[in-house]
Design a protein that fits this description.
Blueprint: E1 3-7, H1 11-23, E2 28-32, H2 36-48, E3 59-62, E4 73-76, H3 95-110, E5 117-120, H4 125-135, E6 143-145, H5 149-163, E7 170-171, E8 174-175, E9 183-184, E10 190-191, E11 194-195, H6 199-202, H7 211-228, H8 235-249, E12 254-256, E13 259-262, E14 273-276, E15 279-282, E16 285-289, H9 296-318
Parallel strand pairs: 1-2, 1-4, 2-3, 4-5, 5-6
Antiparallel strand pairs: 7-10, 8-9, 10-11, 12-15, 13-14, 15-16
Helix pairs in contact: 1-8, 3-4, 4-9, 5-7
């Protein structure tokens, strides 16, 4: 029986719980949240639904940190609770409060076990991964965030909409920092096997898209959701976390644009850093980072991402 622990049961956590139960990947799901009644209520609400014929009889319950010792997957959605103040649009602003939260969570996990795969949703995603991977005695290959998985899904959706094809016929991904500085690796994007630069030949009636236009559209699309839903994006990223969990549990060897720790000597950066690049994911966590070739525009955008993440890492260190 595979076990999931969800840490944080806010807007994102409740979607992770719902998708996790319907995924049929887990026989047990525990929810940890400092607001005990929220965790209890979310667990009980989903547990009641196991009486429906459409649902498996999953053990869903409020948990505590003792639950992590036999967990297969831990998904961390916890974030600072701003109510009644508005949630900041800038994910980097979240770091001032979330760094302490992540450090507390990692301390509670790492002192009890080194076995589960930890998937972070908490923002800023790349800096959070860097904190977890460098400040605690936990295997770095077992720590990752959804990173640019959702950004990449938005990219495929946008390209699919523009050319009138199923987004799943689009193969491509965003890279770098999850958020403002994420960029599309268009030199590796294809539509039905057709390279991005050749699309005009096959779709002459459709206006071609410029790289900066695509980048701006994908980044802004997150904030279209954020503003319309009054301070939250939750459904897409929750599904991304379950897709990532599936790749781990089924040892799929999927190539996903997750955020991971990159040590010394990586082709893109001189010093250790954490960000999203295509990565092979299996039962032991992330197995290999694929540092794909980048054109001049893409390398420039990655350099911007790296600079932004480094600034956040410096801030996180000052908050210790």
């Amino acid at each position: 029986m595979q076990k999931l622990v969800i840490i944080g049961s806010g807007h994102v956590g409740e979607h992770v719980l719902a998708y996790a139960v319907s995924s049929e990947l887990f026989g047990e799901v525990a929810i940890i949240d400092p607001r005990d009644q929220i965790a209890f209520g979310e667990a009980l609400d989903q547990a009641h639904a196991t009486g429906l014929l459409s649902r498996n009889n999953v053990d869903i319950h409020e948990g505590d940190y003792e639950d992590v010792h036999d967990a297969d997957i831990i998904i961390v959605t916890a974030t600072y609770y701003y109510y009644p103040d508005p949630i900041p649009e800038d994910r980097q602003v979240l770091l001032g409060n979330n760094a302490e939260i992540v450090r507390d969570i990692m301390k509670n996990i790492s002192t009890r076990t080194k076995e589960p795969i930890i998937i972070f949703i908490t923002n800023p995603a790349d800096t959070v991964v860097h904190i977890a991977a460098t400040e605690f005695d936990f295997p770095v290959n077992k720590i990752m965030s959804t990173g640019c998985m959702l950004d990449s899904s938005r990219l495929r959706y946008y390209i699919g909409q523009h050319y009138g094809v199923d987004p799943k016929s689009v193969s491509g991904y965003m890279m770098g920092e999850h958020g403002y500085t994420a960029f599309p690796a268009l030199s590796h994007l294809t539509v039905g096997g057709i390279a991005f630069d050749d699309l005009e030949t096959y779709f002459p009636e459709i206006a071609p898209l410029e790289p900066h236009e695509i980048k701006d559209k994908i980044v802004e699309s997150a904030y279209e959701v954020f503003r319309a839903k009054v301070g939250v994006t939750n459904a897409g990223v929750a599904q991304a976390s379950i897709d990532l969990a599936r790749a781990v549990l089924l040892d799929e060897k999927s190539i996903l644009p997750v955020s991971t720790y990159c040590g010394e000597g990586t082709p893109y950066a001189d010093n250790p850093i954490s960000y999203s690049t295509p990565t092979i994911v299996g039962r032991q966590g992330w197995e290999r980072q694929l540092f794909v070739s980048l054109n001049e525009w893409e390398q420039e955008k990655l350099d911007t991402s790296i600079a932004s993440i480094r600034a956040n890492i410096k801030l996180a260190e000052s908050l210790k």
